[in-house]
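User: For my dataset I need records formatted as: sequence, then C-alpha coordinates, nothing else. Please produce one.
Assistant:
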Amino acid sequence: MNRIIITLVFALFLVGGVKTTATAQCKQQVVYTCATNNNKAIYLRDFNTKLRKSKKGKRSGTKWAVVLNKGTHYRFNLCTLSGFEKSVVLTLYDSRHPEKTPWLKTEYTNNPKTSNIVDFICQRSGSYFVSIRFRKGMDKKKTCAVGVLSFVGKNK
Protein backbone atom coordinates (compact mmCIF):
# COMPACT_ATOMS: atom_id res chain seq x y z
CA MET A 1 0.00 0.00 0.00
CA ASN A 2 2.84 2.38 0.87
CA ARG A 3 4.49 1.67 -2.49
CA ILE A 4 1.32 2.65 -4.32
CA ILE A 5 1.03 5.94 -2.42
CA ILE A 6 4.71 6.78 -2.96
CA THR A 7 4.40 5.93 -6.66
CA LEU A 8 1.32 8.15 -7.03
CA VAL A 9 3.00 11.09 -5.26
CA PHE A 10 6.12 10.68 -7.44
CA ALA A 11 3.98 10.54 -10.60
CA LEU A 12 2.17 13.76 -9.59
CA PHE A 13 5.52 15.55 -9.14
CA LEU A 14 6.63 14.38 -12.58
CA VAL A 15 3.44 15.59 -14.24
CA GLY A 16 3.78 19.00 -12.57
CA GLY A 17 7.45 19.21 -13.63
CA VAL A 18 6.64 18.44 -17.27
CA LYS A 19 4.07 21.23 -17.38
CA THR A 20 6.61 23.76 -16.07
CA THR A 21 9.27 22.60 -18.50
CA ALA A 22 6.89 22.88 -21.45
CA THR A 23 6.19 26.53 -20.62
CA ALA A 24 9.90 27.34 -20.32
CA GLN A 25 10.68 25.57 -23.59
CA CYS A 26 7.87 27.46 -25.28
CA LYS A 27 9.46 30.77 -24.37
CA GLN A 28 13.02 29.78 -25.23
CA GLN A 29 12.01 28.27 -28.56
CA VAL A 30 9.98 31.36 -29.48
CA VAL A 31 12.80 33.74 -28.40
CA TYR A 32 15.35 31.84 -30.49
CA THR A 33 13.10 31.78 -33.55
CA CYS A 34 12.29 35.47 -33.22
CA ALA A 35 15.88 36.59 -32.56
CA THR A 36 17.24 34.70 -35.56
CA ASN A 37 14.53 36.01 -37.92
CA ASN A 38 15.77 39.63 -37.95
CA ASN A 39 17.31 39.98 -41.44
CA LYS A 40 20.88 40.52 -40.16
CA ALA A 41 19.93 43.14 -37.57
CA ILE A 42 21.75 43.04 -34.20
CA TYR A 43 19.73 41.63 -31.31
CA LEU A 44 19.33 44.11 -28.43
CA ARG A 45 16.55 42.89 -26.17
CA ASP A 46 13.56 40.60 -25.97
CA PHE A 47 10.19 41.05 -24.33
CA ASN A 48 8.58 37.82 -23.04
CA THR A 49 5.00 37.59 -21.93
CA LYS A 50 2.40 35.01 -21.09
CA LEU A 51 -0.99 35.91 -22.48
CA ARG A 52 -4.18 34.51 -21.01
CA LYS A 53 -7.87 35.10 -21.36
CA SER A 54 -8.56 38.62 -20.14
CA LYS A 55 -10.74 39.61 -17.26
CA LYS A 56 -13.79 41.80 -17.78
CA GLY A 57 -12.86 44.95 -19.69
CA LYS A 58 -9.07 44.47 -19.49
CA ARG A 59 -6.89 43.11 -22.29
CA SER A 60 -4.24 40.60 -21.30
CA GLY A 61 -0.62 41.56 -21.87
CA THR A 62 2.47 43.30 -20.58
CA LYS A 63 4.31 46.57 -21.26
CA TRP A 64 7.97 47.48 -20.89
CA ALA A 65 9.90 50.77 -20.93
CA VAL A 66 12.77 51.12 -23.39
CA VAL A 67 15.07 54.05 -24.26
CA LEU A 68 15.54 54.72 -27.98
CA ASN A 69 17.99 57.17 -29.60
CA LYS A 70 17.26 59.75 -32.29
CA GLY A 71 18.43 58.82 -35.79
CA THR A 72 18.70 55.11 -35.03
CA HIS A 73 16.98 52.47 -37.17
CA TYR A 74 15.39 49.75 -35.01
CA ARG A 75 13.52 46.59 -35.94
CA PHE A 76 10.76 44.98 -33.85
CA ASN A 77 9.80 41.33 -34.36
CA LEU A 78 6.77 39.68 -32.79
CA CYS A 79 6.67 35.90 -32.51
CA THR A 80 4.05 33.59 -31.04
CA LEU A 81 3.27 29.93 -31.04
CA SER A 82 1.89 28.50 -34.25
CA GLY A 83 -1.79 29.33 -34.66
CA PHE A 84 -1.65 32.60 -32.70
CA GLU A 85 0.05 34.80 -35.32
CA LYS A 86 -3.11 36.80 -36.08
CA SER A 87 -4.14 37.06 -32.41
CA VAL A 88 -1.27 39.05 -30.86
CA VAL A 89 -0.02 42.59 -31.51
CA LEU A 90 3.15 44.46 -30.49
CA THR A 91 2.71 48.22 -30.02
CA LEU A 92 5.32 50.98 -29.59
CA TYR A 93 4.20 54.27 -28.04
CA ASP A 94 5.44 57.11 -25.82
CA SER A 95 3.93 59.52 -23.30
CA ARG A 96 2.82 61.87 -26.12
CA HIS A 97 1.18 59.07 -28.08
CA PRO A 98 -0.72 56.73 -25.75
CA GLU A 99 -1.20 53.07 -26.61
CA LYS A 100 -4.41 53.85 -28.51
CA THR A 101 -2.49 56.10 -30.96
CA PRO A 102 0.91 54.37 -31.19
CA TRP A 103 4.03 55.08 -33.21
CA LEU A 104 3.84 51.62 -34.67
CA LYS A 105 1.86 48.42 -34.46
CA THR A 106 2.71 45.02 -35.92
CA GLU A 107 0.40 43.65 -38.57
CA TYR A 108 0.02 40.04 -39.62
CA THR A 109 0.67 39.30 -43.30
CA ASN A 110 0.60 36.02 -45.16
CA ASN A 111 4.33 36.32 -45.94
CA PRO A 112 6.17 34.49 -43.12
CA LYS A 113 9.43 36.39 -43.82
CA THR A 114 7.93 39.83 -43.16
CA SER A 115 4.92 39.04 -40.99
CA ASN A 116 4.96 40.85 -37.64
CA ILE A 117 8.25 42.63 -38.41
CA VAL A 118 8.24 46.43 -38.23
CA ASP A 119 11.11 48.87 -38.75
CA PHE A 120 11.21 52.10 -36.75
CA ILE A 121 13.50 55.09 -37.31
CA CYS A 122 13.54 57.04 -34.06
CA GLN A 123 12.89 60.77 -34.56
CA ARG A 124 13.27 61.79 -30.89
CA SER A 125 15.47 60.31 -28.16
CA GLY A 126 13.60 59.30 -25.06
CA SER A 127 11.57 56.71 -23.23
CA TYR A 128 9.13 54.60 -25.19
CA PHE A 129 6.87 51.74 -24.20
CA VAL A 130 6.50 48.36 -25.86
CA SER A 131 3.35 46.38 -25.20
CA ILE A 132 2.36 42.89 -26.30
CA ARG A 133 -1.32 42.10 -26.05
CA PHE A 134 -4.05 40.03 -27.62
CA ARG A 135 -5.96 41.82 -30.34
CA LYS A 136 -9.40 42.86 -29.22
CA GLY A 137 -11.71 39.83 -29.09
CA MET A 138 -8.91 37.32 -29.86
CA ASP A 139 -8.13 36.19 -26.30
CA LYS A 140 -9.82 32.78 -26.34
CA LYS A 141 -6.83 30.69 -25.20
CA LYS A 142 -3.58 31.29 -23.35
CA THR A 143 -0.23 31.45 -25.14
CA CYS A 144 3.22 32.97 -24.87
CA ALA A 145 4.57 35.72 -27.11
CA VAL A 146 7.98 37.32 -27.61
CA GLY A 147 8.94 40.68 -29.02
CA VAL A 148 12.54 41.28 -30.09
CA LEU A 149 14.16 44.70 -30.45
CA SER A 150 17.10 44.79 -32.89
CA PHE A 151 19.53 47.45 -34.11
CA VAL A 152 19.56 47.89 -37.89
CA GLY A 153 21.83 50.94 -38.24
CA LYS A 154 22.36 54.66 -37.72
CA ASN A 155 20.76 57.16 -40.10
CA LYS A 156 22.91 60.09 -41.13
